[in-house]
Amino acid sequence: MKLNIVEYPDKRLRQKSKRVEKFDKELHTLLDNMYPIMIGTNGIGLAAIQVAHAKQVLILNIPEEDGEQPVDNLIEMINPIITHKDGEIIYQEGCLSVPTFYEDIKRFENITVNFQDRDANTKTLEANGLLSVAIQHEIDHLNGILFIDKLAYSRRKKFEKEYKRMQKEKKSPSN
Ligand code: QAP
Ligand code: CO
Fold first, then answer.
1. Number of compact structural domains in the chain
2. Residue from 42, 105, 139 whose mutation best tests the ligand 1 pocket (most atoms within 8 A of CB)
3. How far apart are CA 163 and CA 161, in angstroms?
4. What is the pLDDT of residue 100?
5. Is 71 part of a structural domain of the chain?
6. Tell me, what's the pLDDT at 2?
7. Which of 53, 83, 140, 166 measures 20 to 30 Å from 112, CA to CA?
């Protein structure tokens, strides 16, 4: 299974991911292959649709104080559902599918999320701060939503202009 990061404006990022029904070897292989991609690209969160698999699968690894991301801190979520949300937090977000662009986004500060692990066990997690932001960002991916969709009109316009310029430079670097 060779995985590549799908980058905006690729339409595949707009697909709605399907619920996982079979907790089989294929699911485990997908999860096992997503982890090195996330770590190798300096990510803290990755949804399966970002590697072109439209399944309700996401992984998270929030760095510790020293910036380390030990594998013990890896969280795998299958079929996540937010059952409670309150408060407000503004956090500067980025996305592996929208490289080199970062913007402040408003989210819920506190959430409770129900999900399944890779063996189909049901779990509940309460989160706040960066973990809460990351979960909401990744669940948005499962619904075809990107953080740039949450920008005000003028910010979004500015983003589209800058991003297009950057894509052009990638294709034909002039330096
Ligand atoms: C989502 O994002 C997130 O532009 C995960 O050049 C972001 O891992 C959750 C990344 C912020 C909570 C807060 C982005 C790496 C990684 C880039 C990421 C880049 C290299 C983004
Ligand atoms: Co993202």
1. 1
2. 42
3. 6
4. 95
5. yes
6. 87
7. 53
Calculate how far, in angstroms, residue 139's C-alpha sits from the geometric centre of ligand 2. 9
Expressed as residue numbers, the domain containing 50 is 11-171
Q: Which of 5, 93, 106, 146 to mutate to test the pocket of ligand 1 (most atoms within 8 A of CB)?
A: 93
What is the average pLDDT across 11-17? 98
Give the residue among 132, 124, 142, 81 at the shortest CA–CA distance from 105.
132
Does the C-beta of 62 come closer than 6 Å to ligand 1? Answer: no
Rounded CA-CA distance 63/70 in Å is 8
Helix (H) or strand (E) holding 11: none
Does a structural domain hold residue 5?
no
Question: Which domain CATH number covers 72?
Answer: 3.90.45.10
Q: Which atom of ligand 1 is nearest to the CA of 130?
A: 12
pLDDT tens sequence across 52-91? 999 999 999 999 999 999 999 999 999 999 999 999 999 9
The answer as to whether 2 is a domain residue is no
Asked if residue 6 belongs to a domain, the reply is no
pLDDT over 70 percentage in the chain: 99
Going by DSSP bridges, is the β-strand pair 75-86/89-93 parallel, antiparallel, or unpaired?
A: unpaired
One-letter amino acid for residue 58 of the chain: L
Residue type, 54: A
- Tokens 């890779």, residue located: 118
